[in-house]
Write a structure and sequence with these properties.
Helix 6 links the parallel strand 9 and strand 10. The protein contains 12 helices and 16 strands. Helix 10 crosses helix 11. With 421 residues, it is an alpha/beta fold. The protein has an 8-stranded mixed beta sheet with strand order 3-2-1-4-7-8-9-10, with helices on both faces.
């Protein structure tokens, strides 16, 4: 089939490459010209898709990257994988609408359009379908097929990938569902049919709401445990020995990525705007997790004052990690970035180390173990804050050379000069 994937980011590019590997002729539509040119040259900016894998589908002519909407003509299946961010703390569906308008011009009878972008229940039926019908002059469910299949991409996860993660599929009609399922059966091992579009849309935002609420719970627990002088990390280890009725979540500097800081807001905002009701647990979790970077800064501030009788202003701080999770360059909504930004706003001299991200102002690629070209060592910093525990970081050597470490992920052994959040 001719498959078009609109948006070639963390979700769209893996889907496009996988579909090409499955034998389809794939057009990857990416309106960002610089990104499009990189893909056409065989250079991937998504870690889950290596350059060799991208070049293989390019060389076989199974994949073509373009920023020209005319290349969408004649598609059998088009999948929309564009961002759904927040603007002024409210859902922003402008990218979905833009994609729908671009796609509508090229819909032919019998074609299938699938939305993968995370959004609130009702978006496919009430927002996307009218745009597709208006632009094509065709009727959804009769002349062409429409579906929703929520993305479940976990960047950097070597175990659960697109092809072996169960894929929820939904359709506007039973016939639409059959077409959507038939496509995803060619690229994934397991498809899970949903009874309706709204159920599939709600399932996606609830999956991340579940994680968001539980992370907020342990983040607040860590604050209370610190006040009580109790080791929260050992407490969670003990609780996790219960073989039923408990799932272990861990504290951290906050939540990041495209999902957790955003998806629950889509649900709570929609419920409030449409029905005037408040999803209280989501809003409370949002308050806790959004304030976690400030809590990390306060802990660091307290440690500097207590241990070295100095303020954050003028302190030399080494921040390890800028991505929101280990093993990836994904810094979208990263709490690590928020922590370093706040420290700099308070006058700290912050050096950021992240082997996966380009060197920014005040940043470097490697931890300054021993002497660097500038003669700087880990011991020259007043404090180290471990924000993202990339595997490239030598934590044993860090513990040996640092004057003080605030470990926000609980991966280091507590010591007189190492505090865990």
């Amino acid at each position: 089939m001719h498959i078009c994937v609109l948006g070639q980011g963390y979700v769209g590019l893996p889907l496009a490459v996988r579909a090409a590997e499955a034998g389809h002729a794939v057009t990857g539509y990416e309106p960002d010209r610089a990104r499009c040119e990189a893909l056409a040259a065989g250079s991937s900016y998504v870690e889950d898709i290596g350059d060799d894998r991208l070049r293989a589908v390019l060389d076989s002519d199974a994949y073509y990257a373009t920023c020209d909407p005319q290349d969408l003509k004649g598609f059998d299946v088009a999948v929309i994988t564009v961002p759904t961010p927040l603007t002024d703390r409210a859902p922003d569906l402008s990218c979905v609408r833009d994609a729908g308008r671009v796609l509508a011009e090229w819909i032919e009878p019998g074609a299938t359009v699938v939305l993968e972008s995370t959004t609130h229940p009702g978006t496919t039926r009430d927002v996307l379908v009218p745009l597709l019908e208006e632009g094509s002059g065709l009727v959804a469910g009769r002349d062409f097929h429409v579906g929703f299949s929520p993305e479940r991409i976990d960047p950097g996860n070597p175990d659960w990938r697109l092809e072996n993660t169960p894929k929820i599929v939904a359709g506007l009609t039973e016939g639409c569902l059959e077409r959507v399922k038939a496509f995803y059966d060619t690229v994934t091992d397991v498809t899970v049919p949903a009874s309706g579009l709204e159920e599939a849309e709600l399932a996606k935002v609830f999956e991340n709401t579940y994680r968001h609420v539980n992370i907020a719970l342990v983040n607040e627990l860590s604050r209370m445990a610190h006040t009580l002088g109790v080791d929260v990390w050992h407490t969670l280890e003990l609780a996790a020995t219960k073989p039923f009725g408990f799932t272990r979540f861990l504290p951290g500097p906050g939540v990041g990525g495209h999902c957790l800081p955003i998806d629950p807001v889509y649900l709570s905002h929609h419920v409030k705007a449409r029905h005037g009701q408040t999803f209280r647990l989501i809003e409370l979790a949002q308050d806790i997790n959004e304030s976690q970077p400030d809590y990390v800064v306060r802990r660091l501030q307290d440690a500097l004052s207590r241990r070295f009788r100095r303020s954050v202003h003028g302190a030399r701080i080494l921040a390890l990690g800028a991505a929101y999770k280990p093993g990836t360059s994904d810094a979208r909504q990263s709490p690590a970035v928020e922590v370093t930004d706040r420290l700099r706003q308070m006058g700290a001299d912050v050096t950021v180390v992240d082997p996966y991200l380009p060197v920014a102002d005040g940043g470097c690629r490697e931890i300054p173990f021993g002497a660097t070209a500038a003669g700087v060592t880990v011991g020259d910093f007043d404090a180290v804050v471990l924000l993202t525990p990339h595997g490239e970081f030598d934590l044993d050597r860090l513990a040996a050379e640092a004057s003080y470490v605030l470990d926000t992920r609980g991966v280091m052994t507590a010591a007189s000069h190492i505090e865990r959040l």
